Amino acid sequence: ISIETEARVARILIMLAEGERKVEISRQVLSDNYDFDAYQIFNYLDMERKGHIDSLNIQDYLRSKGIFASNEEAQLVILFYDQNNDGRLCYSEFLSLVQSEKSFKKRKKCHLQKY
């Protein structure tokens, strides 16, 4: 491959890594917030009480906050975190979206200590 192609791929990888770093920082700040309750947020998004959220729930929530997201953008979020490929997020999948790696490990450690 050409040097120009290699440089473009390198820039893309750097942008992706930087984006992931920013997302993880945002998750950490959210998780450190004393009144953050992922279950309450999940239930807020799951307005129809279906036990899962889908791209329309995400779009509706963002719209209520004055943020426009296309159906395709909302579906990309679902697809990225949808572990069982059913096109929606159950609570445990939603946790991987909003919870930082540090708080996930902390929660898992506390759970294991109970037994």
Supply the key terms.
115 residues, mainly alpha, 70% helix, 0% strand, 6 helices, globular
Would you kindly provide a brief summary of this structure?
Helix content is 70%, strand content 0%. With 115 residues, it is mainly alpha-helical. It is globular.
As a percent range, the share of strand residues is under 5%
Rg is 17 Å
Low-confidence stretches: 105-115
Q: What is the overall number of helices?
A: 6
Query: What is the CA-CA span between the terminal residues?
Result: 54 Å
The assigned structural class equals mainly alpha
Number of strands: 0
- Amount of helix: 55-70%
Mean pLDDT: 78
Overall geometry? globular
Please summarize the sheet with the most strands.
none
H/E order of the elements?
Answer: HHHHHH
What's the structural blueprint in terms of helices and strands?
Layout: H1 3-32, H2 38-45, H3 55-64, H4 71-81, H5 91-98, H6 101-113
Helix pairs in contact: 3-4
Describe this structure in words.
The chain is mainly α. Helices cover 70% and strands 0% of the residues. Helix 3 (55-64) packs across helix 4 (71-81). The longest helix has 30 residues, at 3-32. It starts with a helix and ends with a helix. 8% of the residues are buried.
